[in-house]
Amino acid sequence: MDELGDIIQEFLVESHENLDQLDRDLVALEQDPGSREMLSSIFRTIHTIKGTSGFLAFHRLETLTHAGESLLSRLRDGAQRMNPASADALLAMVDTVRKLLESIEETGGEGDVDVETVIAMVTACIEDPSAPKPEPAAPQAAPAAEAKPAKSAKPRTAKAKAEPEAVEDAPAETPAETPVEEPAEAPKKPVEAPAAEAPKKPAPRESATEETGQNTKRSIADSSIRVDVDLLDTLMRLVGELVLTRNQIVRGVSEISDPVLARTTQRLNLITSELQESVMKTRMQPIDHIWSKLPRVVRDLSGALGKQVALAMEGKETELDRSLLEAVKDPLTHLVRNAVDHGIETVEERVAKGKPGQGTLTLRAYHEGGHVIVEIKDDGAGIDVERVAQTALDRGVVTRDQLARMESREIISLVFRPGFSTAKKVTNVSGRGVGMDVVKTNIEQIGGAVDVDSTLGKGTTWRLTIPLTLAIIQALTVECGAERYAIPQVGVDELVFVDGQSGQAIEHVSGAPVYRLRGKLLPLVRLDETLGLPVRNSDRDVYIAVLQADGRRFGLVVDRVLNTEEIVVKPLTGRMKDVGVYAGATIVGDGKVALILDIPSLARRSHLAAEAAERAQLDQVDNRPRGGDIERLLIAGIGERRVAIPLDMVTRLEEFPVERIERVGSREVVQYRDHILPVIRLASLLGCYDVQEGETVPAVVYTERGRSVALVVEQIVDIVEDHIEARSDLDDDGLTGSAVIQQRVTELLDVRRAILAADPRFYTEMSEITDSMVGA
Amino acid sequence: MPSRQYATFEVADQLFGVDVAQVQEVLRFHEYTRVPLAPTSVGGLFNLRGQVIAAVDLRVQLGLPPRDLNVPAMNVIVSVDDEWVSLLVDRIGEVIELDDEAFEPPPDTLAGAYRNLIVGTFKLQDRLMLALDARRAADTTVPVPVGQHA
């Protein structure tokens, strides 16, 4: 009951605001009868009132607005032009709506307000747009007999009792015990009405507040009040000032060392923190606040349509900034009504399709990648792409050419275009093609997005993506290059510590860093590198935050992981937003500013690494079934990388004492079996930093085209058999690709090419040296 | 005679002024959060009573090398398009009242970055004050033209 009282109260406040706007719009429309934009706006307002009055069971209001909507629909679609007669009719309708609202406000019911006359007037305009102006006196006649109570003599006690009751009883009967104000001058001078009414604008609100204060029954029921968000902003700023002043006092007092003052300051400190927290929370409300009204909506609507719908809600506690919540309310209601009306089929239809008779409508809210996602999912008929396409063509929303180029997903999105409706018949509930248009406009106004996903016969999912300006989110704080960054916790799957000792390390595929996480390759993004910070020269003892965004999983390499905390997201100014890597900024515990990383944009940056990792993974998969030549490979380790060399090119494995390596010019050589063997260090071929050497170095003696080379590696790991397909895509640098061998990324090396790439004159100069030595 | 008040400050030994009505406050601050990848003119971000404020390095805006932000800098907080932006300056001067008549358009010899940011000059007793266009000074999206002060 209280909830319904709230709904009616909000409905009244909103409708009064809407009506004032409507008056202005209608008058403006008369000046500019062709303005589709204006007509659409008026149409939407009336549609909203109609919708709400429908489920609040204000039948007269509903019938009246339905008539108005029909006329507006014709005007909007250009079926007829706006003329003074239709303007009069519409303004008369608005005035009667106002009367009805006043009656509802005072008595909780629609009273005896006459709607038939106005409906007739509006309908006359529809049937014959050029009909002469209807008798303005007509609407006056009906309520003339009514008593005309003065404003001051509002029957308050009656109201308090009547309102909640009326709501309960309304569907059955319309309470008529209370007299209503006479709609005196309204239809007489409709065009002047807005001007006359304008100063009254705040009246409904004032009277509502007044009554809240005076009537104990309501004030108990109504434990919340409407507060101007601007006021909350001001409070927030003031608290900020207080915090700063507090900090200064705390600092000053610590220098004085007065125990009494210190205790007082301590209290001030705590109170200020609590105050700050509370003020911040005043703006946040769980989404349940708007969801709580939906079960009733669904119940009534499904009842009226002869359907059975179960409503499930997940994530009720997800908090949203109050202003965003307000903005989401209408679109959400529209979508829910639409899902019940058009999405979910009747029991018979469902049973015929082999589905359970009762349909399910699921609402889900959750944080994702710095946004709040609200999903409205039904298991109904789904959207028929063909039918959407056909309707879009019929209505001229798209051309056949455009349609031919569209994917089915894009075609489904056409339902968001203004003036689009696939409903077979215009029902009283929805289906004038206004709902989706309103949803899209409203959500985009707050910087959000709507999309729809549908499978014919299976159901439809509408997704609202709402930005979280000012929202409080859980975030992981990390450190990189002496600065802290916050990562929205929703995107964080797990954290991995890359220990220098354990041998688990960051590996490279075609130069892109990857990490082997439980046998799968995880593409990595180095935060320092991405942000253009000085890059650390070791991958030891770093952390990898495994993140998920845009359907992609990747690891973010950071120096340190600090903790998780609740942060308040502050929007960034345009100049910072352009950078693209930041989703916002926040103030962390010690008062410093930390930037919030935008995971999706980091994910896009991980694209290259991801492709490389996928290729490597694919190679692994591809190679198995292909059954090509089994090749034996020698695996050598260098730093954290592993390199495979075809074993049939390897003549021997040797261990050379370091002091036996001699220098000839800029080259290194070693005497080996009465020959001079050129020495090549794998580290320098691969461009790695030089490795610590022991007293001896392992070397692979490698022979190709009659020439031998000693390839110094850090470590000989293993000899394996593997299926390696013939590779034609030899790179100039001698790295022929990579494969996962023994669950580690291993680069395949063509030694000769690698040497030539690193040192094109190597072979010619070396042959001179070795030949001369042999000759000597 | 119409006159206007200017909050004055020095950058690289040159006296500048902005309309005092645009100045919210002046404070010394030293802990800035760097914004990697942002234009160099963005010195950093800092927390002013719960608001995240961007500090714009006027030296960079004037085509000079960036300031060392490890040394505390003076912040002149100006309000530009309903948004607070801090201008990093070397030293704060007085608030002076100047007759509009003392105003002269920027000299033709003024070159490069200065020319973009200056709306005019005022001749004081012993030196010149350049009146700064706060909006342009705070705008970090405009690439800083190469060219030094004449």
From TrEMBL, chain A:
Top enzyme class, one word, equals transferase
Q: Where is the composition biased (Low complexity)?
A: 138-150
Q: Which CDD domains has this protein been placed in?
A: CheA_reg, HATPase_CheA-like, HPT
Q: A single GO molecular function, which one?
A: phosphorelay sensor kinase activity
- Record's GO cellular component terms: cytoplasm; plasma membrane
Q: Which UniProt keywords apply?
A: Kinase, Phosphoprotein, Transferase, Two-component regulatory system
Localisation per UniProt entry: Cell membrane
Q: Where in the numbering of this chain does the CheW-like domain appear?
A: 472-608, 630-760
Indicate the segments forming the Histidine kinase domain, all copies: 226-470
State the residue spans of region: Disordered.
Answer: 129-219
> Per its UniProt record, what Pfam families does this chain match?
CheW (PF01584), H-kinase_dim (PF02895), HATPase_c (PF02518), Hpt (PF01627)
Q: Which organism is it from?
A: Planobispora longispora
Phosphohistidine modification sites?
Answer: H47
Assigned EC number? 2.7.13.3
Does the record carry Transcription as a key word?
no
**Composition skew (Polar residues), residue ranges:** 210-219
Where is the HPt domain positioned along the sequence? 1-104
Q: Can you supply a Gene Ontology BP term from the record?
A: chemotaxis
Catalytic function, reaction form: ATP + protein L-histidine = ADP + protein N-phospho-L-histidine
Name the chain's protein: histidine kinase
From TrEMBL, chain B:
Q: Which Gene3D superfamilies match?
A: CheA-289, Domain 4 (2.40.50.180), SH3 Domains (2.30.30.40)
Tell me which GO cellular component terms the UniProt record holds: cytosol
Q: Tell me the ranges covered by the CheW-like domain, including all copies.
A: 3-143
Can you supply a Gene Ontology BP term from the record? Answer: chemotaxis
PANTHER family xref list: CHEMOTAXIS PROTEIN CHEW, CHEMOTAXIS SENSOR HISTIDINE KINASE-RELATED
Q: What is this protein called?
A: CheW-like domain-containing protein
Q: What is the organism of origin for this protein?
A: Planobispora longispora
